[in-house]
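If you are new to this repository, start here. Below is one unmodified record pulled from the training split, so you can see the exact layout before writing a loader.
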Amino acid sequence: MNLRDIGATDLATYHVRLHETMNEIATFARQIGGDGSVINFDNYQGIVSFVNTSHVHWKFLFINALNHTVYVVNPSKSSTEQTESRHAAKNFSKYLKIRRECHGKTEWLNIKWKGGVLTHPTQQDASSCGIIVTMIARAVMKAFPAVPVISFGTSKKEMAIEREVMGAQILESSVFDEANNCAMCAMAKPIGSGPPTTHWGEVVRQDQKELSDDCACAPDKDKEDDEDHNDPPLA
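And here is the target side for that same chain:
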């Protein structure tokens, strides 16, 4: 659930709505026989998360219970991080009060939260926000409980290398069976009337894989050829 999904224009509205959703889940749990219990914040010293704005941009959220500070980190150059962090801290305090009312939970409730700013690199393009917030999160978790001064390169070449590194780490940690599962839909059986299993096709690039012809998810090559032939001539 992101800001656009709930019609929110700021992090305050977003987090209040997020709490309401959590409360609905807890209420449902009680109705089906569960205890509706929620997490005990006293077992933790911080929270890291990511916020997607307008389906196009990622920001990093870091709530540090040790120094009572909320950080909203924008990977783009921004002069409003302090304001956004202060706003998020105020809203998080409201969330904790609502949590007490709904669940009787009081962890972190008496903390006076403030907004802070992390020193961090910024993106040099329009597409590396997700990579950068992930790298910032990694730096924060490695340095915790210290608050780091974060530094790494963000050039186009450096971001391309980091994408490959992250992709390899995800694949190495995945339970995906690349010998028997579809490279597009990840299913062992295709969606439709195809063979019971699908396989990886020829690797045409280091960072790109092509489906084999028998995959139900693969595009109809004959149809694509027809569409290509019907393209209007270039002016």
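Two things worth knowing about this chain: Helices lie at 3-6, 11-31, 81-103, 129-143, 156-172, 221-229. Residues 3-174 form a domain with the Adenoviral Proteinase; Chain fold (CATH 3.40.395).
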